Amino acid sequence: MGERVFYVTTPIYYPSDRLHIGHALTTTMADTLARFKRLQGYDVYFLTGSDEHGQKIQRKAQEANLSPQEYVDRIVASFKDLWQRLYISYNDFIRTTEPRHKKVVQYLLQKLYDKGEIYKSQYVGWYCTPCESFFTQRQLREGRCPDCGRPVELVREESYFFRMSKYREALLKYIEEHPDFILPLSRRNEVISFLQGGLEDLCISRTTFDWGIPLPFDPQHVTYVWFDALVNYISALGYGTEDDSLFRKYWPSAVHIVGKDIIRFHAVIWPAILMAAGISLPRQIFGHGWLLVEGSKMSKSKGNVVDPIELIERYGADAIRYFLLREMPYGADGTYSEEALIHRFNTDLANDFGNLLNRTLTMIEKFRGGRLPAPSQYSPQDEELKAKALSLPGEVEEALSRFEFSKALGAIWKVVNRTNKYIEETAPWDLNRKGEKSRLDTVLYNLVEVIRRATILVGPFMPGVPPRVWQQLGLEGLKELHTWESLSSWEILPSGVEIKKGPPLFPRLEEKVEISAEKTSEEGEGVPQVSLEDFLRLRLQVARVVEAERVPNTGKLLKIIVDLGGEERTLVSGIADKYRPEELVGKQVVVIANLKPATIRGIRSEGMLLTAIDGEDITLLVPDRPIKNGSLVR
Ligand code: MSP
Predict the structure, then answer these.
(1) Which long-range contacts (CB under 8 A, 24 or more apart) does 547-552 make?
(2) Which of 58, 123, 389, 484 suits a disulfide with 159, CB 3.0-4.6 Å?
(3) Which residues approach ligand 1 with their CB closer than 6 A?
């Protein structure tokens, strides 16, 4: 079983400021992989941490009138708080100011120095402090940092250099021979062309400030912060120390998750250091795109920095994680907006997933007294659903093996939506009315079985979801039904389990519907215009009236039960003076299905019938010819 180990890392973040939603994205990706691999039975080690040295931190601390250590201690506490709220399941949090890290950095520097991989010279060039990066005159863009566009400083100092240039060929060869070493391919190509453009030796020490790790062979110099930082991936495993058992176990199964801005440090500098030290290279480096806000990078000066803690408090960690992983296009930049977040929440989480659970539990309560029935009579429709559900774990695994988070979620949602459609097609309400007992049992069983599978698979993405679903399905004690292995068999749910329907998993959020009241020059009547989008927010559906009765002691009100295509709804409508109840039963009507429920005379009304009104004259809107219940009206 030696193969079944998995080591995943995030970049170690600068504790120069609080973290934002972009940092949360990187860490959520790593956490999802860690959880998925644990689910599959891998022995996982998940590392994150903080990158605490360097000129930038030293300056920030000075501005705050604190010692660098005091300054970083406060911010690191806020990192850990965020990760806890976001369900980040790291095994270790490394801080570069810890003695265990410093020791390994110095050990490695000494080793490289002794091997002649490090030499002393004079550095003359430019330095970008926010990026902690060296640039030559030629690399600058309009005299500024080519990466972030900020001003650079001229540096002229005696420094030590790492003979990085000599690894250019070997790196190119390695990348060529390992097509999956750098993903996505666009990033791999970027690194290849960078290397083809030539590689210089790397300045690895500074003397003009002292917040860093002293070079063991010349303590007047402190280690360049990127050299110091990259080593975290092996210092945390005890490389070069008395106890290097973690290193021997988990290296080189490492997968480094990083943002595209720091791909070069990870795909060029880090492998070159490892080659020079005679250490194997990590297994993979994945460089994701940027999360943009209103099309641009988040920055304090623009005032568009999105605080993940606020969002978690408002929407919950699961929804934030879902949004980040679903919304980021593969390897490219993505966009954050609160409207998009609310929209995803309402459609994918509340409507698709949440409703599937809710409808299923409601039907089991209503038709089977809250106990899970045993399946017996399968139809081709069931077989199709079953086949889709059985192949899903493989699809998710395949997508995640290439870091395609959105695709993996998309595959799960395809099955969720197929299942919602299955409810409409099998119409359990009709089966119940017609007394088709064994068909109804099978359909209800299949629904729970698909929900169970979807729940296991969404767990790594939204760790807060499974415990809540298990409780409602009455499966919380049956741990063997929560496993990866259990996904390969069907019909393993014990019949008779008592369900416990609870509150909705994701209660729908209010979407900001802005109806424009602007008058157009032709109309000018003050009739507010709505966009097509506004209109489409109304869920108008065809439904058949199943039952209708007068609401006692009212003149106009009718209580009407409609079939919305597999789902029954109760409505209260003020048309009793125009229609007798028995006239309505069997008629197809049009209903606003997503109207906020209201309680009228003690009856919960979950929608509204559409009528045409001319003063006292009122008539129901009905379809011109019969159509399937639940059909959308546009
Ligand atoms: N300290 C270095 C990393 C050293 S790793 C050996 C560093 N730190 S950082 O705090 O500035 O940012 C770390 C990472 O955060 C970025 O590489 C990227 O992964 C992530 N992101 C920061 N802003 C981001 C977005 N707006 N969008 C997506 N990811 C972003 O660089």
Answers:
(1) 547/585, 548/581, 548/582, 548/584, 548/585, 549/581, 550/576, 550/581, 551/576, 551/600, 551/601, 551/603
(2) 123
(3) 11-14, 22-23, 25-26, 51, 229-230, 232, 258-259, 261-262, 290-291, 298
